[in-house]
Request: fold
Amino acid sequence: MARPLINVPAKVKRGQAFEIKTLISHVMETGYRYSTTGARIPRDILTLFSCSYNGEEIFRAELYPAIAANPFIAFFTVATESGTLEFKWTGDNGFSETATAKIAVE
Amino acid sequence: MNWSVPSPRAVGRRAAAAVMTALLLLAVAGSACPADISLDQRRSGYADLGRDSKAMQDDDSINPATLWVLDGEALWNQRAGAANRACADCHDDATTSMKGVAARYPAFSPARNGPIDLEQRINLCRTERQQAMPLPFESRDLLALTAYVGRQSRGMAIAEASGEQLAPFIEAGRKLFTRRLGQINLSCAQCHDDNWGKHIASSLIPQGHPTGYPIYRLEWQSLGSLQRRLRNCMIGMRAEPYEYGALENVTMELFLMWRARGLKIETPAVRP
Reply:
């Protein structure tokens, strides 16, 4: 059920900065909380987010327990040619999710 | 070290101040019958949000509740139960068939002989039409479906609940709303009718209109129902909350929607 939301403009001007917004469903359980029975709730967080454009990494973020649930990550980039953005989230318990978005440069 | 021994005059002043405080408290307690907020003075909690939270609610691609709405859309089209039917098989396209539905719930259910809220309506459909297990309150799937159905009414005015069948429940809801509860001995109305716009510690007291449920509450880091919010408030009053699905909760939801009649649906809203 963890479908990421990607918001990028379909068309951008060559060399002009544009914003990429991403949102993913994740509990980001810190590992510091205890259940009502006193048992420690094991950590379950995303640890890495990366974005590549035509195969080349353009943005990367490391995530830590203090980051709220359903992480929203936004950043700017510049494109010089049309291509595909690839997003990847990885985390605890083998979590892995990818998404792609196409951008046309004019 | 005489600083720890107050002078008799200081004691006298303090006693006088205590008497004044007591009198003030009595004056507050004396206004036992809180007045309804006049219709033109009513405002959604949205008006009191910070700039960032407003931006979050205004843009679906930033609003985390969208993740639930999308899940709800998938569930709407997914077959379930022994009947092997999806919501869409009866109701077709939710963007047209569910328009305005959230604006008129809770509604009267002849089967229950009382009001039922949107979550209960969805579960009735599940058990009766789909012959599936009802979804637990606050489960991701029930929140997702409710958010998806609620989303179709965004921007529409909350319909005024009326009719012979609902009237006694609206009145019962008002009684619950104005009844003092818990160790702190407060009623909902004392905060949300009489003292909205003021603060409890640093938190602003809103008028408490359920315009955007289920809401994404930043404190919860999750979507949550109106019943969860009501239970939250009751725990804050140190009262024992009513169970999920209890008639008291639904009755209060009904009264709150009646109280918010005419305000616009914002589902799914963002709140602090």
